[in-house]
Design goal:
There is one protein chain. This protein is of the alpha+beta class. It is about 30% helix and about 25% strand. It has 19 helices and 22 strands. Strand 7 and strand 8 form a beta hairpin. About 45% of the residues are buried.
């Protein structure tokens, strides 16, 4: 059911210094990257003294714009860095799936919490803290945990809405029992309460240090924490240049690892390198270790040369889709939506967009949902005769004209796909104008519900069916791409969230999926692979729900 691509070759280990690495990058690498590397050499002498074997270098096309993951506008890369610099009370475990490590949403282990206990009625969770220390050497206490959770549900940030999806909403819910014990009280036994405490938006802060940089106007030290850390995590921030790079140094006093183990790498360098081809070139030459955001075409080329390791796994908690704005004519007509769904050239789009590197969410033949899992392959396929018939039933037999919006930032994927959409819909009389929008403009237009017809991709951190439906198919929030609000789905999603019986929950999930298929507010296309292209001697790569590296997982073989 899942497609996996791996390519591995053996290579001698490398143990050259930071200075040697700079000399090697002088082989065909753009001057601006050399300048960026030179900036690294202006760092303290300890950076240069670390051997290449002990240093992990990641190159990314995006940037780290804040050290506080809850900052509005924080990039996904910022979430990744925070995972390694801050601890949470708990963390998801991981498992092997078809040869690649992936996160295990069914198992949650303690991180700062040495243990936790859920009461029989599901209304109370008690956490016992381990003997951990902040980066400044002072002890982590339950008071710090309470301050951090109070901040998450109170401050104007990304965390507040996220915590609310697990019924974590007010400071009164977090009670200090003693210096090493804290309880969380819930209004109902919410299945996502504990899981929310494992997300990047639930870091535990050194409250004493943070308060020293707070003010009446900024009681939660949000400004200071954008460029400084107050954590207890596996790594300390040594250098932070927003939009350019971050350098992390291992915290040798860290206690939060699996089995108490320290991370392998003493130092981590994450650097922004905009051009995908340059990122691939750096890894192939040994000047960098890993990238997780290369274009599918570049991944195929690198893989074919056999010099690198490529671990690929479908983004199991996400999807790429085509959305209809159900508030706008003619897409407020379900027959029009069904007609377009029947006219889309699925196989061709899958091929030209991502070279079929992923898991298809089309082509199923079921009439009733076989499981309550979402996303899953849906019973849709190309059928132009059916599409024409549905348009006639919708009252627009001659078709109509519309725009189809794509994100310029993902043009390598979306542009060839859009060309196929335009060509195929023309066969049933629908004239499509392709609208190319910059990332920020596309995001704003989606938020303001101004786009009639577009493609986008998304992932859900907590991939349960009710979470998907509550976030993507109810309310007026940004993530309800289609602005679809079905009364039965809204009711089922709200109930399923608190349903303790697995069989009942499964049935509710199937009902929501069946209603989605009936109404077709958007068309699921595929779960694209996340391709981790890395040096062949790198081990431990894990696909995480936040789609970023956890540096603590990685080591050299």
């Amino acid at each position: 059911m899942r497609r996996l691509d791996q390519s591995v070759r053996n290579s001698a280990g490398m143990a050259f210094t930071g200075a040697s690495w700079v000399m090697m990058t002088d082989r065909g690498v753009p001057l601006r990257l050399l300048i960026a590397v030179a900036c690294l050499l202006s760092a303290p002498i300890t950076v240069q003294a670390q051997t290449r074997a002990e240093t992990l270098r990641q190159v990314t096309g995006n940037n780290i714009n804040t050290l506080d993951p809850s900052t509005p506008g924080a990039t996904r890369e910022a979430f990744g860095v925070s995972i390694s610099t801050y601890d949470r009370l708990v963390a998801f475990d991981r498992k092997r799936e078809e040869g690649v490590w992936v996160f295990d949403r069914t198992k949650i282990r303690g991180e700062l919490a040495e243990s936790y206990e859920v009461s029989p009625d599901g209304l109370n969770i008690t956490f016992k803290l381990r003997d951990a220390k902040w980066h400044d050497g002072t002890p982590v206490t339950a008071d710090d945990v309470k301050w951090s959770l109070d901040r998450a549900v109170t401050a104007k940030s990304l965390a507040k809405a996220q915590m609310g999806t697990g019924s974590l909403m007010t400071p009164e819910q977090f009670v200090v029992v003693d210096a090493r014990t804290i309880t969380v009280t819930l209004p109902k036994p919410d299945r996502l309460a504990l899981a929310n405490l494992a997300t990047p938006l639930a870091p535990i802060f050194n409250s004493k240090l943070a308060k020293e940089h707070a003010s009446p106007e900024d009681p939660w030290a949000q400004e200071w924490l954008k460029t400084n850390t107050a954590g207890s995590g596996a790594y300390k921030v040594e250098i932070f240049k927003p939009g350019e790079q971050v350098v992390l140094r291992r915290n040798d006093d860290w206690k939060g690892g699996r089995g108490g183990q320290l991370p392998f790498f003493r130092r981590v360098i994450e650097q922004t390198v905009p051009e995908p081809a340059t990122r691939g070139n750096l890894i192939e030459k040994g000047d960098a270790d890993i990238a997780i955001d290369l274009q599918a075409s570049d991944v195929l080329a690198l893989q074919s040369r056999g010099k690198l390791r490529v671990d690929s796994t479908p983004q199991s908690n996400g999807f790429t889709m085509i959305a209809f704005n159900t508030r706008m004519a003619p897409f407020d007509n379900v027959k029009v939506r069904e007609a377009i769904a029947a006219a889309l050239p699925y196989d061709d789009m899958f091929e030209v967009a991502i070279f079929k590197r992923g898991y298809a969410l089309f082509g199923a033949t079921w009439t009733e949902p076989p499981t309550g899992d979402f996303p899953q392959a849906m019973p849709i396929k190309t059928d132009l005769a059916k599409a024409k018939r549905l348009l006639a039933e919708a009252g627009v037999p001659a078709g109509f004209r519309t725009t189809f919006a794509i994100n310029v930032g993902s043009a390598a994927t979306t542009e060839p796909m859009a060309a196929l959409v335009k060509e195929s819909l023309a066969k049933i009389g629908i004239e499509v104008d392709i609208q190319k929008l910059p990332d920020a403009q596309m995001s704003t237009a989606i938020t303001e519900k101004r786009l009639p017809f577009f493609t986008e991709g998304s992932t859900a951190w907590l991939p349960t069916t009710d979470y998907f439906f509550r976030n993507y198919f109810t309310g007026d929030q940004r993530w309800n791409y289609s602005s679809w609000n079905d009364a039965s789905v809204t009711e089922l999603g709200a109930k399923a969230r608190f349903e303790p019986d697995p069989a009942t929950y499964e049935q509710m999930s199937k009902q929501m999926i069946a209603e989605y298929v009936k109404e077709m507010p958007l068309v699921l296309l595929w779960q694209a692979n996340q391709d981790a292209v890395m040096a062949p001697n790198l081990d431990g790569y894990t696909y995480w729900f936040h789609r970023q590296l956890d540096f603590r997982d990685l080591s050299r073989k």
